[in-house]
């Protein structure tokens, strides 16, 4: 599996270079890659359905417990097959859809990276690796939403999606780290038997909240739902792929994957039920006023994502079965309908549902595909969508307490989805023909083949569900609930209450469709107050951050060097004040005062010279005094057994004085620039810094220094380093790599000097 | 001596801080030099003081025997001195260039030189 | 500020100081000295010559461009790391030749490395001093 991912990343990176020479066939060429992945994973179907779990691990940071561990079980195989199958269709479709776009090469790079990351995400067993892939999908999603970066709306939507999912990603990381803290391992599978420990843990609630924030933001659950409709700025193949079939299901996948570690508590299940229901209703209701084909589909996707979360929240066997079937069915029909919407846009030049009509003769194949997918979306027998909806209703009916309310919510939401289907799948093709911006004609092969295949697959799955996906259902349910269930999918359950509900849903949908025309103007006028709109919270948060950053910049980045320095110094001292005083007064012994005459002389000369530099008005005097300070430093080194330092200091001081003398007569005269008040303030700060450093030295040197390094160097200098000057041996042998770094820095400084002077010469030459 | 050297570290840091807060760029460079000295003396003092026992292995011996000065801080300071020289030299050249270009060494007057349209020579 | 005494003295001092700087470099492994000090002393020697005779003369005497000396120093230091890599040892571990050479003493990669440091420090100090001096003339 690691090799497949590696190939995926390499192939994606190569795509932009291959695009130019093969641009006419690139749809086919690029689609062969996801198809290859699809087939190689499909070949594992029988094995996995038979109950095998394939594990594979590649060391990454073994010392940190971070490895690329991949796990192929029923749940991950289901997702991988969906990702690669829809990937094949989308890659092929994009070959025609993106034709003529200036940056198609880049498009394939991004979408290839996305697909590989998404496959990695659902295969990963290691939390850290999973998080990395998770973020990779967010980043590629950002790049794809903002693909038409010349449009401001695109850029804004991309940023919004990135901030929302990225912020959620951080919460997820925190949650996963807390979880890993319990098991002392980053492998998700190692947590399976720790369920009892995890839910007893004091941080359990924190883990659940953080993980769910991550999952909800990714899967556009309420209140993070607003980024998904905005993400429709992306090219349509992207919307079909990322924002309906795959990426937005990553959060759902994570919830399903962790269900059997974190689930089973009221907190987990109830949160999922409440948020799922809210999302289901929000998406469906907001869809009512939409006019854009893609927005209509996006809101209905929201509703479906909510339903999936709700099903995980119910968590019964039947609900998990419904989850599985609905997941597969939705990926098939929604992917198809998005692509159909893209085709309509591409062939007519508009996505406005009011402007489309009567296209059935012009786009017959697209019309058939759309109809087939629409039947599935509406839940009409014998398509797989029908089974999905039936099982959803059946699992809600099982509930005791929440049952009636949830059932009503689900029926209304699905009724609205039926309305959306009428608008997207039928209205553009039937009724009276209307003038469109472009004269309509049938889409090219690349654009109808894939969607048609997906739609037909939806039909086949409805007709013989057990043969096609039955094997994976049981295995997936095992991954989610950790119990064997022996589930069987049936198309026809007989005339029962659930079937009646399906009929009611359809009728309700037709009713909504009929009423829509009348109530649309009124509904569009409804303005929610900003408090009720999460997108307004996002805007307010973003603006708040910007103004905070502005304020901070104005205060801290004021353009005066001395204020920067004062800020840094005062902050540092304030932070260090507590530990310094907490340590008590440093012990000072009389021995510390013992001093010989020449030592006193050196220090006295040093102190006087220092004050001379500060107070002198004469430039020459100041420079000489600086030199004197340096030479006194050198003598001090000699006294304290550091001849190498003394030699170096003397040489350096000589050169420094020469440098200053060279620039001396170009120096401006020293004049008082700052006022007395400033001087007093600076003197106070300087005194504080001085006192602070003195105290620190006294504290640090209070005890004895037991340095292992000292004895190591002393013992090994001659045997290992072949030198008797230990300081030099450290510099050129033990720590030679530091010295190498240091001389590189020096060389860079020299290049800086060179560049400064070169600049001048060039100006001069002009 | 230790106490007095600790006071000297404080004095050098104080002087360096005071000078680096000045408006005149020359004094800022002086301040940098002082801070360099201060840091070197700080590391040196923290490595404990040893008199007349440099870290040289005497002929005939295979290793150092107590007492001897800790060679590690010395090695650190040696590189710090040379790096400090590089920084000083660069600062001096930069100062020369800046002074020639804007005609002042007052940092406050240099604040708006980023937007200087015309180079004055 | 041309001085005949200084000028004459510097002509004799320069070789002496350079020999001293090599001496510092070579004995640095066993006694006070080393590449840093050696390079600085050598730079001081050229600085003295420049003060006495002017930058043009000093440059003529140096022959090579300071920036090339810097590059050479960095290169020598890097080359000194190669034998250890080729011998399959850890990066930058010191390798020494067995026989003792007259004057130079023991020869090994650390000495080569120190020689690189010597050249680099010399190059940088000379480069900066000469640049400032040339600035003045304009």
Structure in words:
The complex is a heterotrimer of chains A (766), B (121) and C (138). Chain A has helices at 2-19, 26-42, 45-49, 74-97, 104-123, 127-145, 152-183, 195-200, 204-218, 227-230, 236-245, 250-262, 266-287, 293-314, 317-348, 364-378, 384-397, 403-426, 445-463, 465-481, 497-525, 534-556, 561-582, 597-615, 619-639, 643-664, 676-700, 708-721, 726-734, 736-765; strands at residues 54-61, 66-72. Chain A is mostly helical and 766 residues long. Chain A folds into 3 domains: 1-263, no CATH class; 281-521, no CATH class; 561-705, no CATH class. In chain A, strand 1 (54-61) and strand 2 form a beta hairpin. The two termini of chain A are 62 Å apart. The relative contact order of chain A is 0.06. With 121 residues, chain B is mostly helical. Chain B is built from 3 helices and no strands. The longest helix of chain B has 32 residues, at 71-102. Chain C has one domain. Chains in contact: A-B, A-C, B-C. The interface between A and B is large, with 98 and 90 residues.
Set out the fold topology.
The complex is a heterotrimer of chains A (766), B (121) and C (138).
Chain A (H helix, E strand, L loop, with lengths): L1 H18 L6 H17 L2 H5 L4 E8 L4 E7 L1 H24 L6 H20 L3 H19 L6 H32 L11 H6 L3 H15 L8 H4 L5 H10 L4 H13 L3 H22 L5 H22 L2 H32 L15 H15 L5 H14 L5 H24 L18 H19 L1 H17 L15 H29 L8 H23 L4 H22 L14 H19 L3 H21 L3 H22 L11 H25 L7 H14 L4 H9 L1 H30 L1
Antiparallel strand pairs in A: 1-2
Helix pairs in contact in A: 1-2, 1-5, 2-4, 4-5, 4-11, 4-15, 4-19, 4-20, 5-6, 6-7, 7-9, 9-12, 11-15, 12-14, 13-14, 13-18, 14-15, 14-18, 15-16, 15-17, 15-19, 15-20, 16-18, 16-19, 17-19, 17-21, 18-21, 19-20, 23-27, 24-25, 25-26, 28-29, 29-30
Chain B lengths: L1 H19 L4 H22 L24 H32 L19
Chain C lengths: L3 H24 L7 H19 L1 H8 L3 H14 L2 H5 L22 H29 L1
Helix pairs in contact in C: 1-2, 2-3, 2-6, 4-6
Please give a handful of descriptors for the protein shown.
heterotrimer, A: 766 residues, mainly alpha, 3 domains, two-stranded antiparallel ribbon, 30 helices, elongated, B: 121 residues, Helix Hairpins, 3 helices, 0% strand, disordered C terminus
